[in-house]
Amino acid sequence: LAFQGTAPPPNWPRPVYELSPDPNNTGFINQDFVVWMRTAALPTFRKLYARIRQGNYSTGLPRGAYLVNITYNYPVRAFGGHKLIVFSNISWMGGKNPFLGIAYLVVGSLCIIMGFVMLVVYIRYQDQNDEDEDAE
């Protein structure tokens, strides 16, 4: 066992390798656990738990009552956190968070603008360098 001799964090009643019903799970191949343990870059974040792969939900989930059973709890009130369950859809452009797309557009635009500024500076000062070399 890879986790032999280690102590679990507080409020973890079961070892990592018992989180999955798969008997071959070592804790390293449990995708739910890996996603949950990944550090978030921002203070407000979403972590994907599951994806519905069977059925056609192009028009959304059918109307009705849904039951979500949470069996592995972690207290978040001590640090002012809270948990939500969000049903979301994705498109060819990604999820519902536009931050990354906006960041790419802003940085790309800045690079193009700085490229033009550098080109203007190069063209302007190239003439002066040619005149200095001719004077010598």
How would you sum up this structure, described in words?
This protein is an all-alpha fold and 136 residues long. It folds into two domains: 93 residues, no CATH class; 39 residues. It is 32% helix and 0% strand. It has two helices and no strands. The radius of gyration is 26 Å and the shape is elongated. 0% of the residues are buried. The mean pLDDT is 78.
How would the global form be characterised?
A: elongated
Please compute the radius of gyration using only Cα atoms. 26 Å
- Count of helical regions: 2
Biggest sheet details = none
Low-confidence stretches: none
Average per-residue pLDDT, rounded, comes to 78
Quaternary structure: single chain
Secondary structure class reads mainly alpha
Name the features.
136 residues, mainly alpha, 2 domains, elongated, CDC50/LEM3_fam, transmembrane helix, membrane, transmembrane
Briefly summarize what is shown.
This protein has helices at 31-37, 99-135. By secondary structure, it is mostly helical.
SSE topology sketch:
Layout: H1 31-37, H2 99-135
GO cellular component, one term: plasma membrane
Transmembrane segments: 99-123
Family: Belongs to the CDC50/LEM3 family.
